[in-house]
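Saturday, quiet lab. Running sequence design on the structure tokens for the scaffold JK sent over.
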């Protein structure tokens, strides 16, 4: 499936969902065609309708699900029906509020290791849009869903995204107010009379203080290209989950989990996101710290839990995500095969 065809298919599915569940409520949406040729976007005052919620939830539970992410932390496109943040809130906000976190126990990632928790003793309630304050960032890293228990898990939720986030410094233009100070040519080298090779280190952001503990990269020599340029978001997530408050690095009881849509060609072999993933995993000293699972496989596991059937149905109707069953023994490492196991 091409990227254009995938995007069109998602828009059409979301448009069909809008017609089915909001047939006579055009006032809820921005003025856009409802035929799938453009994304369906809720008006700001109605964007809470973008969150799926259990039909049996009490009014208090519904409020708690909506409060799982403060409105001030909504992404720019939260109101879009394709928002991965709204998808994250629908799933993990509901699991938390409805007391169903144990449904995540025993689910295998694509490398056969636990996607979330090996046992119920490891399980903890997620914090959505969790702010990390251990890296001295002026704008702290925010984790989509962070499980802070005895084994920490940082979940990165993807849906239609074409790639993982990249470093902003090589994208700066002379129009940016900090261009002369922070602009970078994409290499790890001394530039613009900076004392450090990395513009971020120059601002006392501590990525490179910890990167060598997790990766086979070092900042004491020039590198072209800079390895953080394309792996930026994945690296930030790995640092966020492993760097502790006492400045040590935890590698055994922490991992990052990426959840993606298996229909999205960006995550297929040769896609942008898949390429970024490969670069990051291959450089990791502890590759099992980075795991992934498709929405299709995750929903397949949800289908085994009767209380989550509403969610399975909602994800199918709204997003076109159809769950597939996968026993743990059927999951082989994507790194060794180069192919995805889900369909």
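Result came back. Writing it out in full:
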């Amino acid at each position: 499936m091409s990227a254009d065809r995938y995007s069109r298919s998602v828009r059409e599915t979301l448009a069909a969902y809008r017609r089915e569940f909001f047939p006579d409520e055009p006032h809820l949406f921005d003025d856009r065609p409802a035929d799938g040729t453009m994304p369906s976007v809720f008006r700001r005052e109605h964007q809470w309708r973008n969150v799926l919620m259990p039909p049996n939830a009490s009014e208090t539970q519904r409020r708690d699900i909506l409060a799982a992410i403060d409105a001030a932390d909504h992404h720019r496109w939260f109101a879009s029906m394709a928002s991965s943040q709204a998808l994250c809130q629908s799933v993990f906000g509901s699991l938390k509020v409805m007391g169903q976190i144990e449904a995540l126990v025993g689910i295998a990632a694509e490398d056969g290791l636990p996607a979330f928790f090996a046992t119920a003793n490891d399980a903890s309630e997620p914090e959505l849009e969790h702010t990390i304050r251990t890296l001295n960032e002026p704008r702290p890293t925010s984790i989509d869903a962070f499980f802070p228990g005895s084994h920490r898990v940082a979940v990165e939720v993807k849906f239609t995204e074409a790639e993982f986030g990249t470093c902003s410094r090589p994208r700066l233009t002379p129009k940016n107010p900090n261009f002369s100070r922070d602009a970078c040519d994409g290499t790890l080298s001394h530039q613009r009379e900076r004392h450090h090779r990395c513009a971020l280190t120059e601002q006392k952001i501590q990525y490179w203080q910890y990167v060598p503990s997790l990766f086979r990269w070092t900042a004491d020599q020039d590198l072209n290209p800079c390895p953080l340029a394309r792996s930026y978001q994945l690296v930030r997530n790995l640092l966020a989950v492993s760097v502790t408050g006492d400045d040590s690095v935890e590698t055994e009881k922490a991992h990052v989990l990426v959840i993606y849509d298996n229909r999205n060609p960006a995550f297929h072999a040769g896609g942008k996101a898949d390429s970024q993933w490969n670069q990051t995993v291959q450089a990791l000293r502890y590759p099992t710290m980075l795991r992934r699972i498709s929405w299709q496989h995750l929903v397949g596991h949800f289908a085994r839990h009767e209380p989550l059937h509403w969610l399975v149905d909602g994800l199918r109707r709204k997003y076109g995500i159809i769950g597939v069953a996968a026993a743990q023994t059927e999951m082989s490492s994507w790194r060794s095969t180069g192919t995805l196991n889900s369909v």
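Notes for JK: The chain has one domain: 3-328. The two ends are 12 Å apart (CA to CA). Ask whether to fix the surface positions before the next round.
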